[in-house]
UniProtKB/TrEMBL annotation, chains A, B:
Native species: Aliishimia ponticola
Residue stretches making up the FAD-binding PCMH-type domain: 31-219
GO biological process: respiratory electron transport chain
The name this protein goes by in its record: FAD-binding oxidoreductase
Transmembrane region(s): none
Annotated Pfam families: FAD-oxidase_C, FAD_binding_4
Domain of life, per lineage: Bacteria
Length: 473, 473
């Protein structure tokens, strides 16, 4: 199936069907991505203002076999939003569909359009005395439609789940331009196949999400934050089990950080205030969110005491104010920026079964040491089994010095992950970066089923071709 | 596509490929279902002992275009396990695949084969000091594969979610006889389309689930149960909001019961001990499950006090022992049996948005009153918006007296549910009972996508034909 470029002729067809404001000038920002790995390619850029306009554009694209690249906040880390090759596509940005259509505080539901920025969704929930718990570094730029299309993770997954767990219903334009009106506010609905979860995580290859019904939660009434120095990743897992045993789902975040991250902060972002005079080898950042009748700092003290007695921790800081809690989180949140400034040779967003984490870290470190002199910054959402395991050059060297080793490092880490029953893309998705990894490590029966589904719902192959699955020739 | 019967010739083919023990004598139990509505039809009954044997049977069925009806515990309420017509199918029972393959307490994960009885799965979790929270009336007979295939609900949904929310991974035989090895123990895995959730809830029409990786939870350390008399369904919803605000996810069940249910118990099951001398018009049954450091009965007393002050409740009983808690639950759990003994004219497993519950009950009651003299037993999982809204004959009459009104009643209730943005199958699924309802009320774009997916994954139409979607002619 050869696709056609979104050329002047296609532009004319769009302008016959839709007002000229739907098209946007080609700005560089649409064709760049955060890793700086690809330069995008777009014949036309459209920013429709309504679901009807999205549907009209998709129908035209289907009629004329023009590829569509759906575009949210552009913050994806695997190139799902960037088409580097093939006939120039229509880039379809949801940036004008930003309405919070409705909030139902008594149902703990909100309906938001796909272009709403994640931070605005959070704020709209807070304005109704509710929590929308999806939280990630790019939340000031990322849009909820993209978060859903990529099944985003972040720091709230331990307690609240991934993006798919936060969604009750979708409105979406399918590849033939029809509109699925699936904005259900229902907690239970067993009427047919789970189209919602099929679209979530399909990275724009099966349709364009235009709006979503999102789950909200009561705001936790008592919150607390602590940093605890743990002896090892194994001790971190035991501390987590202890915390959940004592506090149940009150544990709302549990992040592991290696000393390397603190050292990168010292090196590249000296203004970020560091809580420990001497950073421990392994630190966990714990957030609690408890209902009204409990004391979060009391609970953290009790946890620290029990963990000290069990030999799991040897130092700890409990935030005494919201400002101090923000300071603790600031350390965690600046680590990705410090990483960027150092410049990684190879970054890995992996997950393994929880009990395999210590083995993964131990064997991973040995494998990397065998490949040369590198620094490893391992951090992430340890309660979800999700680590960002990033490999950096030794001091005085740069990533450019290791370009030729990059694929070997990536392969070695991913082989280990696969051997341990893990995933080579825990939360970022496949995009274009990991299409080859998915073909290599994915279950062949699942891959065949994915291809059959893709061909059934998008027989022309116009939706984000080359993302998730290889483009058809 | 005409299918062939599972006849003697097909039997011979099976016996050439597999040991004779795989086949089972035709027993009546396989061809009956709890509603007594259909008589099943099966050419052959097979009970494979391994995933490989399941795959071999499915491959044979695909080669010879023989329909397969996957069979779990046989407890489904919508006829998904019963093929009343068409060429006699191969009934494929998972009853011999009952192993708990592994328990990983430190990961809160268990891997169970599809034929494991739900109560055995719960017991295996408890044996590892963990909770598997799926809980429903048929748990002593239902099998976990069927629970997943139908995305079962039950009383734990409010806190823990539906069956799909309790599953991390699947092993399944697809309609071409290939095996998807997807028994992931990962909490985060963004590698391609969500085949797991597509199979969950597809009621055996897209493949046969053979095993599942299930999520476990720490056992709640402090549990408590109470009955509270509420003024109205609206007051019940306010009480729920208050409870969640005070106790967060400590609220693990919240069931609404109308007085009619208590009266049916008095009439048909007088041995069931009733806690109230005079049953209130509306009662809620509340279960708490709290971590170690809290007192559940203290929390229930506090909740009752606050609710009394707010005018939401006017009577209440807090269980003083586990025996008394079991007594409270026994009332709730015997209501379906009392209903069966009375004999409903029409039963409805519906859900509506939470805030629409009072309107649904008020308008529903008025509509039924307009259709004749009936008794309504409305009860269910009000925190999920899921009500069992069942219509019974007046005293002295029987369901047979109203056979001709049955479709009108059902239609009127379902029309109202649809108008309020609800679902005509909240937790039981579509099966064969509600295929027409789904065609009538379902979104046409979703239906078209479902058909495309069905045809793509099961082009011969052998998997449970006539369930969920109409069988192809």
């Amino acid at each position: 199936m050869t696709l056609n470029a979104a050329d002047d002729r296609f532009r004319t067809l769009i302008l016959q069907a839709l007002p000229p404001e739907v098209l946007r000038p080609a700005e560089a920002r649409y064709l760049e991505e955060p890793r700086g790995r690809w330069a995008g390619n777009a014949g036309l850029i459209a920013a429709p203002r309504s679901t009807d306009e999205v549907a009209a554009l998709v129908r035209l694209a289907a009629q004329h076999k023009v590829a569509i690249v759906p575009y949210g906040g552009g913050t994806g880390l695997v190139g799902g939003q960037i088409a580097p090759d093939g006939p120039a596509p229509l880039l379809l940005s949801l940036e004008r569909m930003t309405a919070i259509r409705a909030v139902y505080p008594e149902e703990n539901v909100m309906v938001a359009e796909a272009g709403a920025i994640l931070a605005d969704v959070q704020a709209a929930a807070a304005g109704a005395d509710r929590l929308f718990p999806l939280s990630l570094a790019a939340e000031g730029t990322a849009r909820i439609g993209g978060n859903l299309a990529t099944n985003a993770g972040g720091t709230g997954v331990l307690r609240y789940g991934n993006a798919r767990d936060l969604c009750l219903g979708l409105e979406a334009v399918l590849p033939d331009g029809t509109v699925w009106h699936g904005l259900s506010r229902l907690r239970k609905d067993n009427t047919g196949y789970d189209l919602r979860n099929l679209l979530i995580g399909s990275e724009g290859t099966l349709g364009v999400i235009t709006a979503a019904a999102l789950k909200l939660w009561p705001l936790p009434r008592a919150t607390g934050t602590a940093l605890m120095a743990v002896a090892s990743p194994q001790a971190a897992l035991k501390l987590l089990a202890m915390a959940r045993d004592m506090l149940g789902d009150g544990v709302s975040a549990f992040e592991l950080m290696h000393r390397q991250g603190f050292e990168f902060l010292t090196e590249t972002l000296p203004d970020v205030r560091q809580p420990f005079a001497e950073p421990p080898e392994w630190t966990v950042l714990i957030d609690l969110g408890l209902p009204a009748r409990q004391s979060a700092s009391g609970a953290l003290e009790e946890l620290f005491g029990a963990a000290l007695e069990a030999g799991l921790v040897d130092d700890g800081l409990i935030a005494q104010s919201e400002a101090q809690a923000a300071e603790f989180w600031s350390v965690r949140e600046h680590i990705p920026e410090a990483n960027r400034r150092i410049g990684s040779v190879s970054s890995h967003d992996i997950s393994v079964p929880l009990s395999a984490i210590p083995e993964f870290i131990e064997r991973g470190d040995a494998i990397i040491a065998g490949l040369g002199a590198f620094r490893i910054n391992c951090f992430g959402h340890v309660g979800d089994g999700n680590l960002h395991y990033n490999v950096f050059p030794a001091p005085g060297r740069t990533r450019q010095d290791h370009v030729e080793q990059r694929d070997d490092i990536k392969r070695a880490v991913h082989d280990l992950v696969h051997e341990l029953g893990g995933s080579v893309s825990a939360e970022h998705g496949i995009g274009r970066l990991k299409v080859g990894d998915l073909q290599r490590y994915g279950d062949p029966v699942k891959l065949a089923a994915m291809r059959a589904i893709k061909d059934a719902l998008d027989p022309l192959g116009i939706m984000n071709p080359g993302a998730v699955l290889p483009a058809r020739g």
